[in-house]
Write a structure and sequence with these properties.
With 243 residues, this protein is of the alpha/beta class. It has one domain: Carbamate kinase (3-Layer(aba) Sandwich), CATH 3.40.1160. 38% of the residues lie in helices and 19% in strands. A 9-stranded mixed β-sheet has the order 4-3-5-2-1-6-10-11-9, with helices on both faces. α6 runs parallel beside α8 and α7 runs antiparallel to α8. It starts with 7 loop residues before the first strand and ends in a 5-residue tail after the last strand. InterPro entries: AceGlu_kinase-like_sf, Asp/Glu/Uridylate_kinase, Uridylate_kinase, Uridylate_kinase_bac.
């Protein structure tokens, strides 16, 4: 049996990936598939924390563009991530994976408040921890949340699960047939080439704290386990000097 190359990970799941082909809302078969993939990793004794986006329900930037105050729109987006987190928690617990949701905005009736030491203790006990409501502050994305929480809990890697692409490309592969897929990149290259892997705040935070990032497709069953076992799929982004 192969041994995992990481002991503690942060899995970043986009809100759009939960909607499947619908483009909106939560597709039960998709969220069940993600839960099964997470269970495979937990069974390897890997500590798993998850950050879920909210783009399948609400996007703060899109709301702001429609005339809603930006801070208000971002808070609405944070609430969307809570809905997704609760759905994912339910899917995990239905297959006997103990899970805790921690929110950056206090809502005691449905989830724990985010407390770093408590989150780490949950992980040490084999529980999956889902970080919801972003950082609790407007103007910050859930990518930044993933980078921040990974630094706080001393995760060894961030796994960025995508539902449409299987890595990082030089251009949009759906629009440009000559788009090149990268096997490895540095954070400086991502920033300098404006590749859009993460927003610049998240990329800088990962670079400053030397947290590697693996971008891969979540649509193929078993891919999370493959990454954790060290298989070379997707694109690895690391700290380093731009070439």
């Amino acid at each position: 049996m192969q041994s995992p190359v990481y002991k503690r990970i942060v899995l970043k799941v986009s809100g759009e990936s939960l909607s499947g082909n619908n483009g909106y809302g939560i597709e039960s078969s998709v969220i069940s598939s993600i839960a099964e993939q997470v269970k495979e990793v937990v069974e390897l004794n890997v500590e798993v924390a998850i950050v879920v986006g909210g783009g399948n329900i609400w996007r703060g930037i899109a709301g702001s563009a429609k005339g809603i105050d930006r801070a208000t729109a971002d808070y609405m987006g944070m609430l969307a991530t809570v809905m997704n987190s609760l759905a994912l928690q339910d899917a995990l617990e239905q297959i006997d994976v103990p899970t805790r949701v921690q929110t950056s905005i206090a809502m005691q009736q449905i989830a724990e408040p985010y407390i770093r030491r408590r989150a780490i203790r949950h992980l040490e006990k084999g529980r999956v921890v889902i970080f919801a409501a972003g950082t609790g502050n407007p103007y910050f994305s859930t990518d930044t949340t993933a980078a921040l929480r990974a630094a706080e809990i001393e995760a060894e890697v961030i796994l960025m699960a995508k539902n449409k692409v299987d890595g990082v490309y030089s251009a949009d592969p759906f629009k440009d047939a000559s788009a090149e897929k990268f096997e490895t990149l540095t954070y400086l290259e991502v920033l300098n080439r404006n590749l859009g892997v993460m927003d610049s705040t998240a990329s800088s935070l990962c670079m400053d704290n030397d947290i590697p990032l693996v971008v891969f497709s979540i649509t193929e069953a078993g891919n999370i386990k493959r990454v954790v076992l060290g298989e070379k799929i997707g694109t690895i982004v690391m700290k380093g000097s731009a070439s």
